Amino acid sequence: MKRWFKYIKPYLPYFILGPLCMIVEVIGEILMPRFLATIINMGENANPGDTGSIIGICALMILTAVLMMAGGVGGAYFGGKASVNFASDLRRDAYAKIQSYSFANIDRFSASSLVTRLTNDVTQLQNFVNMLLRLALRAPGMMIGGLIMAIILKPSLSVVLAVTMPLLVISIGITIFSAFGKFGVMQKKIDALNSTVRENVTNVRVVKSFVREDYEVSKFETANRNLKDAGMRAMKIMIITSPILNFFMYATIIAVVWFGHGIVLDGGMEIGDLSAFITYVNQILMSLMMVAFLLMTSSRAMASGKRICEVLDEKLDLSDENAACPDKTVERGDIDFRNVSFRYYKNSEGEVLKNINLHIPAGTTLGIIGSTGSGKTTLVSLIPRLYDTDDGAVLVDGTDVRDYSLRHLRDGIGMVLQKNTLFSGTIKENLRWGDENATDEEIKTASEHAAADKFVSTFKDGYDTVIEKGGANVSGGQKQRLCIARALLKKPKVLILDDSTSAVDTATERQIRDAFREDLPDCTKIIIAQRISSVRDADMIVVMDEGQITGVGTHDELMQNNAEYQEIYSSQMDRKEA
After folding, report:
1. CA neighbor of 230 nearest in space, from 194, 191, 197, 182
2. C-alpha 279: how far from its chain's center?
3. 3-state SS, residue 445
4. Helices 12-45 and 122-135, interaxial angle, to 10°?
5. In this predicted structure, what is the pLDDT of residue 227?
6. How many angstroms separate the CA atoms of 19 and 139, rounded?
7. How far is Cα 372 from Cα 337, in angstroms, rounded to an integer?
8. What letters, b where the CB count within 10 A reaches 16 and e where it falls short, cover 65-84?
9. Residue 374's closest CA among 545, 254, 151?
């Protein structure tokens, strides 16, 4: 409860005023049947002198109706304000927590699941809070008030309620108990459906190029059917609940009418009082139906709340909590790997990196080459602490990367990942991710270094050209060059290019390398590549295989003493000649 009170406290007045307004409406609903019974009784007695009293009661009923309307509107308004703000703050904190996740944390959730938790699950909690504020006092108030008024009107007739209410409560308890767990399954099926849709939409070009639309439609239908089936299993409980409640309600009313008409005929009760009694019985049973509906909604909200708590309670793999030098910044870009080993899955036997030892002097251009899956990307991911080592240490400027704050460490490192991502907005807005205060001249200079200025200048709007979602309206090579320019704007001390020039021609790639060498002499440059031509001129080349370094040296040195490098060179030269 302490967790949720954090989101209630800022809006406590709304959480108090909403139920209080509903109490005003409840009091009106309790009084109205009594007013009406008095009028009916006066009419039945046909006393001409009661006309003034009837008019007075009618005026009182109108005033009560106005107050009820004000209470109902106020309750709905404050309930809505409270629930919307509650959900907004909860969604904000969940999103902020996700932003602090490491890659390993994100790997434990699917992207579609995180989206569902921030949208659908938070909405379920919002709806529950809104309903709770409107019904938490209204339903018990109507039930207690109705019971008191019914007993005052005719205690002996109230025995009917003593029989039917326990049966109704037991039925509600059984149906609600059956619903628990089913809503959690339904939310997981929503995750699966969102994952299918996201994957298809993101990769629509691949789907169409392989003519796999029918397969994707079939996959979607399976996920959709699974969600429908899970939803129906949960909804069946609610579908069954309503008829059961209606049966007990009308059976009770019939019993009241059956026993009540005899009491009226015997003169033990006036007809207006019987009418009021029936109304109170209806209110009591309706309040129980409200409680049942609230509890049904709570079962789904509890499932959603548990899923959101999993996001908020996720233990961060990477944090600044134990940083010994939180104020230290990267000054030179000197890098050391000391006996580094790493596993993605900590309980797996095989290591992705095995006892890596490597020194990269500041200002060096380092090339890394090796077969697919040899650990190249994993190795460089340890430098900005996208993951932490299992054994050994990675040092930048002689300091363990775990002793830096994440912000200061990553501010000093520019990284262009294998998957080049651009965001919706203009080219200029995308490039300013590297430096939000960059001038137009700095943007142009960085683009020139990345060989991007030439093609950007051909666009009608230049750097104000709008990039579609994911960079869909630029080519792969253009996207790579824009991502390199974005990294350069950070003015990093360490620049990591993870196969980031694979989609550009060799002449453009050479232009980019020349610009790095001439304009970024003090920056440590790490280039992962599949082509030897991309790293041939590097100061030092590292050859990797199966998570281990099998060779370190210049191109000429490796051609003399490293069989694997010779094999890669030979295969690429053979393809080139062919």
Report:
1. 182
2. 46
3. helix
4. 40
5. 84
6. 11
7. 21
8. eeebeebbebbbebbbbbbe
9. 545
- The two structure tokens encoding residue 282: 């209806």
- Give the whole-angstrom CA distance, residue 145 versus residue 140: 8
Task: List Cβ neighbours of 569 (8 Å cut-off, separation of 6 or more).
Answer: 532, 559
Distance from the first to the final alpha carbon of the chain: 70
The residue with tokens 């909804």 is 235
Strand 548-553 relative to strand 540-545, pairing: antiparallel
- Return the percent helix, strand and coil in the chain, to nearest 5: 65, 10, 25
Cα-based distances in Å from 44 to 41, 53, 56, 236, 260: 5, 14, 17, 47, 17
Distance CA 173, CA 181 (A): 15
Identify the band that residue 574 occupies on the pLDDT scale cut at 50, 70 and 90: low
What is the CA angle 323-329-331, rounded to 5?
140
Question: What type of residue is 504?
Answer: V
Amino acid at site 40: I
Distances (CA, A) of 260 to 104, 165, 374: 69, 18, 86
pLDDT confidence tier of residue 578, bands split at 50, 70 and 90: very low
Q: Which amino acid is at 459?
A: F
Summarised one tens digit per residue, pLDDT across range 266-312 is 878 888 888 888 888 888 888 887 887 787 778 778 888 888 998 99
Write the CB contacts of 449 (distance below 8 Å, at least 6 apart in sequence): 484, 485, 488, 512, 515, 516, 519, 520
Q: Could you give the C-alpha distances from 13 to 9, 416, 484, in angstroms and in order?
A: 9, 49, 51
CB 264 within 8 A of CB 274: yes
Q: What is the pLDDT of residues 144-192, one digit of tens each?
A: 888 888 888 888 888 888 888 888 778 777 776 776 667 767 777 887 8
Kindly state the helix (H) or strand (E) to which residue 323 belongs, with its residue range. Answer: none
Quote the distance between the C-alpha of residue 274 and its chain's center.
Answer: 54
Residue 267, C-beta contacts closer than 8 angstroms, at least 6 positions apart: none
Distance CA 281, CA 287 (A): 10
Question: What values do phi and psi take at 531, rounded to 5?
Answer: -95, 130
